[in-house]
Give the backbone structure.
Amino acid sequence: MGRFLLGLITILATAGQTAAVPPADGFARYQIILERKPFGEPPPEPEAPPPPPAEETPPWAESYRLYSVIQTEGEPIQASLWDLKNMKTVMVSLGGTAVDGIELISADIVEEVAILSKEGISATMELKESTKKPPPKKKPPPKKKPPRGVKVAQKNKNVPPANNQAAQKKNEEQVKRVLRTRR
């Protein structure tokens, strides 16, 4: 039985190899049929659909960045914008009055998208596009430390500065009067 199976496998393997070999002339023998176009003209290549029109950002929207879309309980949706020209925050609410000429037309809190309008021209702003948060308020420059070995005197807010001797004498006299009345 083993020899039979081995012989059968050998026959099938050699038959598969001979059937898979294409004829020497290949596809050339069908060229005459193809030239007669038995199936008619081939269909034209499909045209690629035109790309969707790109939304142009209106000029006024270039100077604003959306940095929050929120809604508190019982309040309308609000959008916060950062004005890059004036470096200030502009908050507009849905159905509210226009601020700096900007109105909130619609907003989606989940998608973080707001449609705003100014001068009759609307713009769609996404929070994802404007990951830039408004810059932090400027901190005063740090005070310079005195050189090593120098002690800084503490300022007493109750003591007026001694700019002139007359003011200093007047203060001393007031202190003496207060001390006399306490005895």
About this structure: Residues 31 and 37 are 10 Å apart (CA to CA). Residues 2-20 form the longest helix (19 residues). The chain has three helices and six strands. The beta strands are 64-70, 78-83, 88-93, 102-108, 113-118, 121-126.
